[in-house]
Each structure stands twice: as C-alpha cells, then as structure tokens.
C-alpha cells in the first residue's frame, strides 16, 4: 500500500468513526479529490462533512478552529504547505492560544494537513518545508507523516491531544510504499518512535551513528545507511519520531550512541534539528563524542529546474557524507 | 456546491472581426507555445508543473498597446501569455521552464515566478495585489501617468489580501488596474461554488469602477478599455473582468470537468472561430506561428542547463 492510500484510508476511518468529524480544504471534493488526491472518495461517502472552500487559507483554518471550538473534530487541508503562511495568524494567535489563554484548558480537536517539501519541480513557493517556523509555539503540536507510522493511529493521536496540530506530509512520500522494503534493515516501534537498525544483531546493538530524521527524510536516510553499510561497513540506526514538537526527547535517549546526526529537508538556519540537538545536549552531553550534527537543505530558495533543485535540497549523498564527517570527529 | 459551468448559449458566439497581423500573430504565438508545452509535458520532457492560458490568450493581447514600458505588470500562475504579450520572448520563457541557458530567471523561478524589468509574477494567489498597490503608490508619486496592472483569476477573490489592497487603492487614489480573468473555475471548483455575489458587486463596495468584457474580439475590447485605462493613470483604480474560458486542464492532466463544460469552453474558443471566420488570414499566420514555436523548442532544448549559484 502506498502512503497516500494509507492516509486516505485514515481519513475515511476518522470520518466513519467520528460523526462530528469534518474535512475541509480547497478542491477536496470528488471527482477531483484534492490536489494530491488524498481526499478521494471522502465527499461521496460523507457528503456534508467534507467541505470545499474558496482559496482562503486563513479563513478555512479559522473555520476549522470554530468547528473544533464547538466540539467537532476538524481536519483542514492546506493545498501546499507553503500556504500555511496565510494561516499563521489563525494558528499562532488564535488556535494555539485559545487552548490556554482563557485561563483554563479549552480543548480543540483540530488538525491542519500540510503537503510539504520539494523534489517535484514546483518552484520556490510550492516546495518548502515550513516545520521550523512553527517549532516552539506552546499549544501547537507538529507531527510528520512517515512510512513507518500508520496514519490512522497518527490522526487519532493528534485528535486526542485536544490541541491544534500541524501534520507535515512529504509530497514524495505519498507515492512510496508504507513500511520498510530494504531487507538490509529491520524496523521496530518503541512507542511513538520508529527504530530502524541493520538486520544483523551485532550491528544493531552497537551502531556507529544514530540518525534522527522526520518521516519525509527517512528514505534518504535509509539510502545513506545502505551505502554506508555496504561500501564503508559503517552501521547506523535511524530514529523517526511521529511527533516533532513538543519532542519526547526522553524516548530518544535509550536509542542514542556517541555520534548523533539530525537530517531534515528544511533549509539551514533555525531548524527543527537545532531544537533536537539542544534537547539532546542538555540530557546526555557527556555521553556524546561530539556535538549533534545537523544536515539539511541549503540556506536558499528552492529552484524550479531539476538540476538546480537537486543542488539545494537535502540528498541521500549529503547524509552519507555527513555521517562520515561525524565519525571522523 | 456541485453546480457546473453555465451551459453554452443557444446561439453561437458572434463573428469575430478581422485582426491586425501583429495581434493575430501574437495570439497564435501564445497558443502554439502553450500547446507545445502540454505536448512536452506529455512526452516527459519537462519537469515540474505548468498552467497554460489556452483560451485566454486574447486578454493580454487586447491590453498590450494600452500598457507602456513604464507600467508594471503583475502576473500569476497562468502567466505565459502575459509574458509573451509584453516581451515576445518565447526563447527566454521556454528556457526558464526547461531550465536551460538563457532562462529569464536562471531556471530558479520557473513557469510561475518570473521577473524582468517591470514585469513580475508569483504563484501564491492574491499576494501580488498589495504589492502592486505599493508599486502604484510609488508610481503615482514619482512617475505620474504610469500604472500597475495585476492579473488575477476569479478564484483568487477568495483571498483576504485582495480586499485589503482594493481598499487601499480606492482610499489612496492609486493607479491600479486589476484584470480579472474569470474563466468560471478555480482548479476544480466552479465559480458558483467559491464566489458569493459578483465581482462587480465587490468592486462597487469599495467605490471602484468595474468594466465587464464578454467579447473575445480584440478589436472590440481594446477601444472600450482605452479611456478606462487612461482613467486609471489619473488615479482611478479599476477592475476589468473578462468572462473567459479555460480551454485546457488546470495544470497538466488534472481536468475533472464534465464534458459539457469543456465543450462550452471550446465553443467560445477564439482560435477555431477565427479560423472559421477568416480562413485566408488565419492559415498562413497559424502555420508560421506553429513553425516558429517548433523552432524555439528545437533551439532551446539543445541548450545546456542554466547555471546559478544558491543565494539566500
Ligand atoms: C495562496 C494559494 N492557495 C492555493 C493555491 C493553489 N492554486 C493555484 S492556482 C489555483 C486556482 C486559481 O484559480 P483562479 O484564481 O480562478 O485562476 P485560474 O487558475 O482559473 O486561472 C489554486 C487553488 C495557490 N497557488 N496559492
Ligand atoms: Mg479561474
């Protein structure tokens, strides 16, 4: 099953299980089913609870908050995550604040879905990974879609938090299969965390490097882990958390070793990875061989042309190189 | 919410008048450029996405002589026709879309992010209107008589920034010309499902003039617009709404419109109508434009990739 189908099934499941659940966004109705076809079939099966909106990201996010405020579960789709910028006020100054600014907790069951990232030649305003701009907002949780987490489970976790959540969905990941296809590795779950190790117990027990990556970057990290293992006999462990913020750093700690790297697609500067690094440094500085390394996209706009886009975006080979450098110390 | 485009009128559209050679040549250049793009995408030779202006070519062609080099043009995602009408530069545009040497913006911006002289486009709906208002404010003070022209679609009226900018334009007497290409649809959503009231009513709410264009005949559209555009130059902002038709898909293969909606768009298409009404004029120029675009494709495809170094 592809990740997009898993997410589509998760939305079907949510609407079926929760009679107060709504899905809204631009062009989400059948037969179109959304720009990335994630809402396919929903409006036919649940007419009235799947709502197409005008091109009004601020308003549709506010409407989701209003539905949540009145006891409903609202899932809003922002067609391209870049346009979450148009909903920033609703998210930052209303939804995230209203959970607590009235002096007592006001639960909001609200998820804003953001198709994210580059690699498809959509150009500078349709390819960004905006996670970092939302990190550190009390009352707003950030999740990222992953090949190793069932989206039904993730949706339930977001809804049950009772506070607004942003869900980042890497667009390339939509077309990938769920789960792990590479026989060199084995994936297991430790709570929210997916842990991927070489399928050789001795290597799995003592990885040379631990890579922390959100779901959208997982395949690139795995590709690097494969070439490192086969070409250089370097073994890595990959940790993929589903919730990026607030990060459960305690859950990471038992899986870390002396060398840690965070890989993400966001552009350099003020990244999620620097938040992870800081949390890890605070807890286990003395157990690390060196500071946590960060590898991300270049501090640049994301060009349209494929050959230029490749120069900017985080790649498998950049992760490979970063691991080697980290091991060299 | 599921209402589709209005059905084609019972009577077929009126006969088109004979165009000047340069107007027809430009219309045909844009048409063949866009057709060629869809062909290239279909053949897997282009990366990313594109939004063609098939069916809407006459909008920038009608405006072309009404705008001068001192005027700013703000374009949107569906902007190839706007660019070609302003610069005639099919090579630079195709190179931009293909990421080849000679690209207008080095292949960085691509189809929907172009900047050249006083021409600028962006793919985020609605955000150019306030920027154009700022430019118009500057022009009013420093170069009176020039204006800022912004192209938007019907769907873009969903964005709040549009109204904030209209308010400013009216309050500050800005030389702002808003050209609305109302093609009855936004991506997959018919206008009736995304726009309450009318565009005329919305302009009226700000005390801004509104001019409706239903014709696709450049010779009819242009003289009617001429005095109105002159008014914009003296600080009377204006909304010009073209009722037009999107002939192709929203971007590449994503057309879920019912067949009758596509048929209605085709019946209004100036291309077939002009071929029918003026075959002697049409055919030689059509063949020439087709050959010209084929030449551009051959030449640009053979170029090396564009070069650029990342900068923040
Ligand atoms: C802020 C923003 N939201 C959504 C989109 C995605 N999008 C691109 S074009 C489009 C439809 C635009 O419709 P309209 O304004 O009628 O122009 P048309 O495509 O019909 O020319 C949408 C929703 C966008 N580019 N920007
Ligand atoms: Mg439209």
From TrEMBL, chain A:
Gene3D superfamilies cross-referenced by the UniProt entry: 3.40.50.920, 3.40.50.970
Domain of life: Bacteria
Matches recorded under SUPFAM superfamilies: Thiamin diphosphate-binding fold (THDP-binding), TK C-terminal domain-like
Keyword Hydrolase tagged: no
Start and end residues of each Transketolase-like pyrimidine-binding domain: 1-176
A Pfam family that the UniProt record links to this protein: Transket_pyr
Keywords: Oxidoreductase, Pyruvate
InterPro entries reported in the protein's UniProt record: THDP-binding, Transketo_C/PFOR_II, Transketolase-like_Pyr-bd, Transketolase_C
GO molecular function, one term: branched-chain 2-oxo acid dehydrogenase activity
Cofactor list: thiamine diphosphate
UniProt entry tagged with the keyword Oxidoreductase: yes
UniProt-listed Enzyme Commission number(s): 1.2.4.4
A biological process term (GO) from this entry: branched-chain amino acid catabolic process
PANTHER family (UniProt xref): 2-OXOISOVALERATE DEHYDROGENASE SUBUNIT BETA, MITOCHONDRIAL, 2-OXOISOVALERATE DEHYDROGENASE SUBUNIT BETA-RELATED
Protein name per the record: 3-methyl-2-oxobutanoate dehydrogenase (2-methylpropanoyl-transferring)
Record organism: Planomonospora parontospora
From TrEMBL, chain B:
Record's keyword annotation contains Nucleotidyltransferase: no
CDD domains xref list: TPP_E1_PDC_ADC_BCADC
Pfam families the UniProt entry points to: E1_dh
Names of the cofactor(s): thiamine diphosphate
GO biological process: pyruvate decarboxylation to acetyl-CoA
Domain Dehydrogenase E1 component: 29-275
GO molecular function: magnesium ion binding; oxidoreductase activity, acting on the aldehyde or oxo group of donors, disulfide as acceptor
ATP-binding is among the record's keywords: no
This protein's UniProt keywords: Oxidoreductase, Thiamine pyrophosphate
Name the UniProt record assigns to this protein: Dehydrogenase
Organism: Planomonospora parontospora
Lineage of the organism: Bacteria, Bacillati, Actinomycetota, Actinomycetes, Streptosporangiales
């Amino acid at each position: 099953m592809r990740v997009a189908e898993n997410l589509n099934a998760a939305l079907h499941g949510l609407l079926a299980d929760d009679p107060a659940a709504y899905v809204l966004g631009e062009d989400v109705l059948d037969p179109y089913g959304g720009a990335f076809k994630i809402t396919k079939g929903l409006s036919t099966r649940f007419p009235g609870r799947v709502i197409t909106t005008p091109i009004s990201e601020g308003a549709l996010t506010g409407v989701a908050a209003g539905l949540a405020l009145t006891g409903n579960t609202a899932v809003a789709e922002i067609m391209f995550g870049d346009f979450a910028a148009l909903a920033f006020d609703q998210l930052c100054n209303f939804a995230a604040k209203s959970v607590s600014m009235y002096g007592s907790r006001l639960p909001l069951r609200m998820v804003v879905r953001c198709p994210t990232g580059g690699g498809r030649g959509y150009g500078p305003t349709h390819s960004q990974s905006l996670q970092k701009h939302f990190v550190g907002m009390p009352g707003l949780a950030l999740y990222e879609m992953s090949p190793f987490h069932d989206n039904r489970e993730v949706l339930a976790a977001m809804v049950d938090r009772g506070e607004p959540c942003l869900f980042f969905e890497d667009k390339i990941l939509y077309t990938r299969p769920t789960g792990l296809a590479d026989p060199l590795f084995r994936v297991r779950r430790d709570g929210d965390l997916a842990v991927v190790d070489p399928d050789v117990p001795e290597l799995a027990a003592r990885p040379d490097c631990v890579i922390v990556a959100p779901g959208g970057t997982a395949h690139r990290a795995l590709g690097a882990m494969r070439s490192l293992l086969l070409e250089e006999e370097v073994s890595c462990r990959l940790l993929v958390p589903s919730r990026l913020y607030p990060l459960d750093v305690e859950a990471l700690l038992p899986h870390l070793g002396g060398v840690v790297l965070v890989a993400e697609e966001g552009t350099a500067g003020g990244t999620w990875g620097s938040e992870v690094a800081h949390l890890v440094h605070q807890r286990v500085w003395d157990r690390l061989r060196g500071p946590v390394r960060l590898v991300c996209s270049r501090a640049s706009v994301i060009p349209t042309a494929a050959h230029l886009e490749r120069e900017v975006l985080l790649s498998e080979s950049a992760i490979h190189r970063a691991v080697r450098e980290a091991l060299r110390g | 919410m599921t209402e589709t485009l209005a059905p084609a009128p019972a009577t077929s559209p009126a006969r088109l008048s004979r165009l000047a050679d340069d107007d027809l040549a430009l219309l045909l250049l844009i048409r063949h450029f866009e057709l060629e793009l869809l062909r290239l995408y279909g053949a897997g030779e282009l990366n990313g996405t594109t939004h063609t202006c098939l069916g809407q070519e006459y909008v920038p062609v009608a405006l072309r002589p009404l705008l001068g080099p001192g005027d700013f043009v703000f374009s949107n995602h569906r902007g190839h026709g706007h660019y070609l009408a302003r610069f005639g530069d099919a090579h630079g545009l195709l190179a931009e879309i293909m990421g080849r040497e000679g690209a207008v913006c080095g292949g960085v911006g691509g189809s929907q992010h172009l900047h050249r002289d006083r021409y600028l486009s962006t793919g985020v709906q609605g955000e150019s209107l306030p920027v154009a208002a700022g430019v118009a404010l500057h022009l009013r003070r420093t170069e009176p008589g020039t204006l800022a022209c912004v192209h938007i679609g019907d769907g873009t009226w969903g964005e709040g920034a549009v109204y904030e900018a209209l308010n400013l334009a009216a309050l500050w007497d800005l030389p702002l010309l808003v050209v609305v290409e109302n093609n009855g649809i936004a991506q997959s959503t018919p206008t009736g499902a995304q726009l309450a009231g009318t565009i005329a009513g919305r302009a009226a709410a700000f005390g801004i003039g509104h001019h409706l264009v239903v014709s696709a005949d450049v010779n009819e559209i242009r003289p009617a617009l001429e005095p109105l555009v002159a008014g914009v130059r003296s600080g009377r902002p204006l909304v010009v709404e073209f009722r037009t038709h999107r002939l192709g898909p929203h971007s590449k293969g994503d057309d879920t419109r019912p067949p009758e909606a596509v048929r209605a768009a085709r019946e209004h298409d100036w291309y077939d109508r002009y071929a029918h009404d003026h075959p002697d004029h049409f055919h030689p120029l059509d063949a020439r434009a087709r050959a010209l675009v084929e030449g551009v494709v051959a030449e640009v495809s053979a170029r090396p990739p564009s070069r650029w170094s990342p900068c923040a």
